[in-house]
Amino acid sequence: VLLMNPLTIALSVVALVLAVSYPFMKRFHHLPQVHLGAAFGWAVPMAFAAQTGEFPPPLAWLLFVATILWTTAYDTMYAMVDRPDDLKIGVKSSAILFGEADRLIIGILQGLTLVALALVGMQAGLGGFFYLGLGIAALLALYQQYLIHDRNPKGCFQAFLNNNWFGLAVFAGIIASYLFSAG
């Protein structure tokens, strides 16, 4: 990163703080999943800054928020698997914080992720193929809700893993939108 422009280098300091501090967050607050999302998502404003040398536009920050929402949703599914062990050893997680509302809150986070991504698509001028990909991602989110319905650790882990397909659906929609758009 030291070979990048000064703004990207400055933003990388935030990335470093997020990455280094994340492993300790289960000791300090109940939302380490949000911290993880910020650590993953910080690549978005850094990439914009690296490409343009300017402060990232609102589109980048909206994508950053979408990343935090999505990561919080899928990592809460994973935290549901670990909830009994986390309670025994005294660490914190969103699954513990959300308690019996975990499935509802995950569903809200998934819905907000899809809304944020739809707004990104509108701002970026993506076409119908992108929205088709979002539609498939929405169906996958519903399937994940089915998998976590009983809070069975195996189902929760399967839902967590299923997010690979969620991400692929969104990515394929972006690629297809660019490949097959008119103009």
Spell out the blueprint of helices and strands.
Layout: H1 6-21, H2 32-41, H3 43-52, H4 58-89, H5 94-98, H6 102-124, H7 128-148, H8 153-180
Write a structural description.
The chain has 183 residues and is mainly α. It contains eight helices and no strands. Helix 3 (43-52) runs antiparallel to helix 4. The chain is flat, with a radius of gyration of 18 Å. The mean pLDDT is 96.
Task: Sum this structure up briefly.
Helix content is 79%, strand content 0%. It is mostly helical. Helix 6 (102-124) runs antiparallel to helix 7 (128-148) and helix 7 (128-148) runs antiparallel to helix 8.
CA-based gyration radius:
18 Å
Characterize the biggest β-sheet: none
> Can you count the helices?
8
Share of helix, binned: over 70%
Provide mean pLDDT, rounded: 96
Order of helices and strands: HHHHHHHH
Helix-strand makeup class: mainly alpha
